[in-house]
Each structure stands twice: as C-alpha cells, then as structure tokens.
Design a protein that fits this description.
The structure is a single chain. By secondary structure, the protein is α/β, with parallel strands linked by helices. The chain folds into 2 domains: 3-48 and 150-246 and 341-398, FAD/NAD(P)-binding domain; 83-145 and 249-338, 2-Layer Sandwich (D-Amino Acid Oxidase, Chain A, domain 2), CATH 3.30.9.10. Helix content is 28%, strand content 26%. The protein contains 10 helices and 18 strands. The chain has helices at 15-27, 60-75, 77-80, 93-104, 119-125, 149-162, 197-205, 234-240, 304-319, 365-382, and strands at 3-11, 32-35, 52-53, 87-92, 115-117, 135-141, 145-146, 166-168, 171-178, 184-190, 217-228, 248-258, 269-271, 277-281, 284-289, 327-338, 345-348, 355-359. Strands 1, 2, 8, 9, 10, 11, 17 and 18 form an 8-stranded mixed sheet that branches. Strands 5-6-4-13-14-15-12-16 form an 8-stranded mixed sheet. Strand 17 and strand 18 form a beta hairpin. The structure holds flavin-adenine dinucleotide. The site of flavin-adenine dinucleotide has 42 residues, from helix 1, strand 9, strand 12, strand 16 and helix 10.
Length: 413
C-alpha cells in the first residue's frame, strides 16, 4: 500500500465531474485531482446520451440551471457542436392545457420566445407530421437544441487541465473514511491501463465491491476535500462513504434508424406525446423511449431490432405516414441516474463537512452540467452559492419523512 495526499479530489470524470473541475480550477488556486475507473467513459452516461439541451422544465430551478448552462454553451458553440434548432414538444389533448399553463407561468422561461401551436399549425410547420388528431398542441422553444456531449466533456477537461487539474485513469474509489481532523482517507483500487472494455463493464455492473476483475492493489489517498460526481453509481459510492442514498440507476435505450422519406438534418429535437423523442444524427435519426416497466440496476444490454420494432417504430408510425418504412441501423443502452423527485442532488453531503456531491441529474446532466459545476465550485470555494442559489437541491431534502422539500420535476422523457 502506498499513501499520498491531495487537496481536492473529484471522483467521477463525466460531464459533471469535468465541469466541477474546470469551474473549481477557474475560481481557486487549490490543487484538483479527478479520479475515474475509465476516463474514456465507454459506459458513462456522458457518452451514452441524446445530447438534448432545453430550458423548458416545469421546475423554475431546473429551468434556471439549464438556461445558465445554455448561455455558456452559446459562448463555445462551435467547439461543442451546439446547434440551437429548438425543441418541438407535442402534447396529447388530455395534457395540453396543463403543460401550456405550466410553461407559460414559469418566470425563467418568459423571454425565450416559446411558441404555442395548435394541431393545424403543427401540420403546417412540419409537413411530415400528418397524424395530429390526438394532439392538443405543441410548444416550440427556439433557444433549445442539441450538442455533442463528448465534445462538451473534452472542452471542460481541456480547460481544467490548462488550469492545472490532474485527471487519473483506472482508479476506482472503494471506501472513504473521515479522519478526526476532517480530512478524508480514500481506498482506491488501481487497475492496469490495459483493462479491456469488457473488464471495465464488469467492474461497473457489479452490484457489490467484489468484482471478478482483480486490481493491481489498493492505494490509500488522503484528501482535504472530496467531490462525489459518480453519476449512476452514486448509490454505490454513498455506501463507501458509510451513507445510504435514495438515488438509483435505470437503463434507457435509443435506436438509430434510416428514414428515406423525411429529412430532419436542419431540425432540433422532437418529443412526441407518446414519450418517444427523436432528432437527426448525421444522415440517420436517433430516437429514444423510456420503457415504463424497466427495472432499476446496472444493465447496458440494448434490445436491438426488437426494441426498435416494438417500442419506437409503432409510436412514430402513428404520428406520421412518412415513418411507415424505417430501417433499424443500431442502438445503445445507457443509464439514467434518478433521484426520488427527478431533480439533481447538489451540495454538501449531509453530515460530512468536507464532502460535496453533484449527481442524479435524472436525464438532464448534459444540459445542466455547466451551471451545476459552477454552483458546486462556488460552494466549495466561497462556502456559499453566488451565481445560482441551488440549496433546494441539497440531499438533505430526502432525509425528512415529509416531501414538502422535494423539487418534483414532471416534464421528463
Ligand atoms: C439514453 C440517455 C439519454 C440521455 N439524454 C440526455 C439528453 O438529451 N440531455 C441531457 O442533458 N442529458 C441526457 N441524459 C443524461 C445525461 O447523460 C447524464 O445526466 C449525465 O451524463 C450525467 O453525467 P455524470 O458526470 O453525472 O455521470 P457519468 O457520465 O456517468 O460519469 C460518472 C463517472 O463516474 C465514474 N465512477 C463512478 N463511481 C466511481 C468510483 N467509485 N470510482 C471512480 N470512478 C467512478 C464512472 O466511471 C463514470 O465515468 C441521457 C442519459 C441517457 C442514458
């Protein structure tokens, strides 16, 4: 066993850990080290997502985090492939009035130029949407759009590295012990750089610490402060901290398909009232659907042609006659990291003064990553939030028996 001392250690180098690292490095002179089992992130949610970015959320706090992030993405638009081509969200007759009122009354959305369209206007706007009888209306939010999540992560990391942040690969943090002086002692399993993708997956899907893949050994590291950005592994990481977490991982799948009759290349994101969402992806279309009966857990198996034929295609075909003939190409499964109220957990870990957390973005980590990273960096550096007040997202809200402190978000896909 070897021992070394660090100042601030961030566990998890996905979009959130990388954004916290960049923002911390920009604010403070403290040395920052980021640890991850797999810096490449082959199974991280940050590499397996739809890249959608929208400010339209029911909760003002979720809208504010996304809006603040969008303002930043606009400044690095080309570097991260940010295309502000809008979100077109179709609502059933039953949901329309409530959806419209909620968005219209959210003060964080007032100046975004959101359009509210009738079924006739939907058909006129997008000729291929020719089956609208079941729809009450749709919103079009022009400032929303799509980005390349891999490029965004690389942007955060490059800026962080430039400011002196160190990223360490093949390191799995197994346990954390708080010391009497408040500092932390970490048991870090170190794996060889030759670890294959299957071996990485094996460590990540193991429900216990007893993964069948053996490490090179345990390295003991000391840190003055710790930041926990472990995404879908938050529950497992909490156990290593001696805590329990109410957050869970759940599989979400997306299919890539060819559609000869519809060209979406100049469009942004479409969300159908059935729950299917789709957007252009190079010369194909990418569509996702949250299977309602999906069990929680670490599962990366993509359902293939069957998932596409049973879950995606029928819903698209009901919306447009042009979707009658689609050819499945491939697909993927990644993990959503969901909290009980479907809003993120950001703040100090309850009961541990020098441990901070940002995780469980419940399907919106790419679009909130900049502002979430900035907020947490400010809390660590100044001891208080400055730019955005996000204390309502502290994990303490799940400790009380009553749910009055929850931040329930319902505008989900
Ligand atoms: C199918 C799908 C579609 C999505 N679509 C969108 C979308 O359109 N827009 C959007 O904003 N969001 C979307 N999301 C959600 C978004 O991808 C996530 O919210 C975001 O990527 C979370 O980032 P993260 O950094 O918290 O987690 P991750 O990217 O998963 O990173 C966590 C990292 O922590 C590491 N780690 C975990 N535990 C340990 C440990 N003990 N020691 C060392 N390392 C550890 C892991 O290896 C991993 O690299 C989607 C997600 C999925 C699955």
């Amino acid at each position: 066993m070897s021992k070394d001392s660090k100042d601030i250690v961030i566990v998890g180098a996905g979009l959130i850990g990388s954004s916290v690292a960049m923002n911390l490095a920009r604010l403070s002179k403290r040395a920052v080290t980021v640890l991850d089992l797999d810096l490449e992130g082959s199974f991280s949610s940050s590499e397996l997502n739809a890249g959608g970015v929208r400010a339209i959320w029911n909760q003002p706090l979720n809208a504010a985090l996304a809006r603040h992030s969008i303002a930043y993405y606009e400044t690095v638009r080309d570097e991260i492939g940010f295309r502000q081509r809008g979100y077109f969200w179709m609502h059933s007759r039953a949901n329309w009035e409530q959806a419209r009122k909620r968005l219209a009354s959210n003060p964080h959305l007032a100046d975004l130029g959101i359009e509210y369209l009738t079924p006739d206007e939907i058909r006129k706007r997008y000729g291929f949407i020719d089956r609208v009888d079941d729809l009450g209306g749709a919103t079009f939010s022009p400032k929303d759009g799509l980005l390349n999540p891999n490029l965004l992560k690389l942007h955060y990391r490059a800026a962080a590295r430039e400011a002196g942040v160190e990223f360490v690969d093949r390191s799995w943090v197994r346990k954390v012990r708080a010391q009497e002086d408040g500092s932390l002692e970490l048991d870090v399993n170190v794996f060889p750089s030759s670890l294959s993708e299957d071996e990485v997956k094996s460590v990540l899907v193991s429900e216990s610490e007893a993964s069948s893949i053996s490490s090179l050994g345990t390295h003991v590291m000391r840190a003055r402060s710790l930041v926990h950005c472990t995404g879908a592994w938050a529950r497992r990481f909490a156990e290593g901290l001696g805590k329990t977490s109410p957050c869970k991982a759940i599989k979400r799948q997306m299919s890539l398909f060819e559609c000869r009759d519809v060209d979406l290349t100049a469009c942004g994101m479409f969300v159908d009232s059935s729950g299917v969402y789709f957007h252009p992806e190079a010369k194909y279309i990418l569509a996702g659907f949250a299977t309602p009966e999906q069990a929680h857990g670490y599962d990366f198996e993509y359902g293939g042609e069957e998932f596409f034929q049973n879950r995606i295609w029928p819903r698209l075909a009901e919306r447009s006659s042009k979707f009658a003939n689609l050819k499945h190409v491939t697909g993927m499964a990644g993990l959503y990291e969901v909290s009980p109220d479907m809003s993120a957990v950001i703040g100090r870990v309850p009961g541990l003064d020098r441990v901070f957390e940002a995780h469980s973005f419940s399907g919106r980590g790419a679009m909130q990553s900049y502002a979430a990273g900035l907020a947490l960096a400010e809390l660590i550096h100044f001891g208080a939030y400055r730019t955005l007040e996000v204390s309502a997202l502290s994990g303490t809200r799940f400790e009380a028996a009553d749910r009055s402190k929850w931040v329930p978000e319902g505008l989900l896909i």
